[in-house]
């Protein structure tokens, strides 16, 4: 599943289509595709894991789910979920969830929750996390209403950088450690972006899909929290704050 930095790359690659008219819309998406014909894509935006194509009075949301993908100009072999044809090129989406929503996109999205946004608000994210005192921090870092764009890679790497065990209970984590964690989420996300562009992401990961920690200890791999997403962590380097939940 693409995380926020990968969506930022898509946004950078598609800026050429902003302000351009859709000459033809194609695909098998279950929306009124004909409505996009001859409409101007006034803006392209990302929020977390959502790619947003904004028109006058409505917008189209593309969510890549687990295996979604896209291509620019060159059509792939997979069935096209949505194809947009401009005079500056073509944009194709595959195996994605495509929905159309009425209204202005700014009325529905909190840009301060997006870790890649210039409007990112760390203090607001911390406040939202503290509203779930009994939750495990691993679940909070996957909550898109709190840290939009954070996925399993960012979750694991940020927790390692902050030296916090993924099963730590929110109310037991000191405030200064929460601030450090959210800073690490943000900083790692932009490192992720930089490394992804260079095709160097995998070699820079410290814990995700790793077998051994830099300390020499064996990496623990476990499904954690209510989300049951896989966590990679070092029992020696990452401190557990609070008792483990019964479902851990």
From TrEMBL:
It catalyses: Hydrolysis of DNA containing ring-opened 7-methylguanine residues, releasing 2,6-diamino-4-hydroxy-5-(N-methyl)formamidopyrimidine. Residues 206-239 form the FPG-type domain. Pfam families: H2TH (PF06831). SMART domains: Fapy_DNA_glyco (SM00898), H2TH (SM01232). InterPro entries: FPG_cat (IPR012319), FPG_N (IPR035937), H2TH_FPG (IPR015886), Ribosomal_uS13-like_H2TH (IPR010979), Znf_DNA_glyclase/AP_lyase (IPR000214). This is Endonuclease. Belongs to the FPG family. Residues 2-89 form the Formamidopyrimidine-DNA glycosylase catalytic domain. Keywords: DNA damage, DNA repair, DNA-binding, Endonuclease, Glycosidase, Hydrolase, Lyase, Metal-binding, Multifunctional enzyme, Nuclease, Zinc, Zinc-finger. PROSITE patterns: FPG_CAT, ZF_FPG_2. GO terms for molecular function: damaged DNA binding; DNA-(apurinic or apyrimidinic site) endonuclease activity; lyase activity; oxidized purine nucleobase lesion DNA N-glycosylase activity; zinc ion binding. GO terms for biological process: base-excision repair.
